[in-house]
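Morning run. Coffee first, then this:
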Amino acid sequence: MTIDRRDLLKVISSSAMAAAVGGVLPEEMLPQLTAVDQERQNAGLSGSLVQRAPERLLQSEPVVTLDAEGTATIAWETVIPAQGGTIYVGVPNDEIALDWPIYNAGQSVTEESARLKHEARVDLRGYASRSAPRMLLEGGTLAYRLELFDTRKSAAQFIDRHFSFQVENGKFRKTPAILEGPFLSQIQADSAIVWWVTDTPTKGEVRLSNGVNIPSESGPSEGGLASRHIVRLRDLSANTKYRYQAVSAASDGEIRSRSYTLRTSPQEPAFSFVFTCDGRTGGLGGGDMALEGINGISARALAIQMARHSPHLMIFTGDLINGYTTREDDFRAQLRSWKRIYGPLWHEVPVYTGMGNHESLLDIFPDGVQADKQAGQSAEAVFASEFVHPMNGPEPEHPGLPPYKGSVYSFDYTGCHFTQLNSDYWYSSRPQQRAGNPFGRLLPGQLEWLEKDLTAARSARARHIFVFVHEPAFPNGGHVQDALWGGGEAEGVKVRDRFWSIITQAGTSAVFCGHEHNYSRTLIDSKTPVHRDGTANAGFVKPVWQITQGAAGAPFYPRDSAVPWAKAVKKFVAHTWSYCLVQVRGPLVSLETYSYTGELLDQAELV
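And here it is:
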């Protein structure tokens, strides 16, 4: 079946904005959408959908069993025949804040031939007696890394996992483990969320003290026994540090996290946040450079530098992972790899994430067309379920389309307003053939929600407004052919101009984006050439900075100096991993950009 591109893009062009308010597609589109859904279902049932998961070497998650004498058996299955490898073991480094595990022992996995099913045994008692004697008394958590050779890429792949155990009277038994977290989210002056994930259903609580080890209230997790735990802490004091600990218990044992620091927000705007994005892998080799979809080397280096500033928030807007997969378990595994790397920072700094074009969970049709899966199976739905973000975003553009909530949202922090958008919603590689949206196109429902959100923030007298979106409105190198302006085509430019008019009229302080794997700082105003013919847009009534920071680990892009707004680019850095530190001090907002080695690359006053 063929869908006329003009019929689809009428919906998403700004010329149809008034007719499409509320994020509702025209009625004439509904039969087409239904037919496409039926075609997709038929392709899935017939097995004709193409399967692709280039980052996935495991067919399923490793399974760990532990006998009473301390022998751990780790079994896993690969998607292709593989032969042998190495397993490394170690413990989380609980003597430092950024507690990534240190692997200090290893052994070969010897196999006579390539196979799909694999198994390795680890002598836990022997390891503990040599490297961690206290484990023999009280148990603990063992981290392990599988180093396997992926013949598809001619490179090694690392699989990092861990499990927990207890020792009683010299006998070992496996217990629940905290797989993710504890993480902080949605911190305010008097409240906060702590959340974590366990490998088996448990009863969870947070044990909170006031900083001098006096126990405070414990909040039960929502829903009783569960693997995902969300605890809302209330009645806290502003600008105060608390020590907290996540505890999960079940009939087979209890696991406690380390004790971490939670800092509530100040009442006056005096805080900082760090920002970066595009930390995915991609053609960078194997090992830690391709750690289940992310560049683990750059991520660790950036997290170390970010932690030096003790920021109040971290924001990462898209391309966390390499994505572009047809398997939901692969998509989740990549997101969990990202959480595993940034987790040590996240224990004490609330993290907010957004979607980019690489957060793609796809159906791939025999003719090569790629399209976002639908509704609850979509990339948007799965992404939202992997985080604990505010759920105040818009409704889907039409019932049955992917949700916005959880990937599009806003929140206030210390009198300032933060808005996260999704520039890559409901993707289709060929919208003219199968209904969907090209990358970099903000649809009417999201734009209407944005306008209402920013208008409300301005009415509430937000001191500063910060907007985050993966694709830049004014690309400068690597994605000039697409991004929010659609490569300069009329339809894309109209939507881009509508977006920028909304943010300027709301008095936004800065727009933060990525997509281009470099750093740039660009000032756009009513006199800046923003169209192919060199004309400006008088509707851009307030000068607003666009900060592009897509240098978190993906392959670098050079500058394109032919863009109409080239003279408005005040700084461009192409070839180093980096991040931004934004400091808010009352009416002032300053920016500093640092490399992964801690060198200052740029600084400016944004307000």
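The domain at 270-605 is CATH 3.60.21.10 (Purple Acid Phosphatase; chain A, domain 2). Good start to the day.
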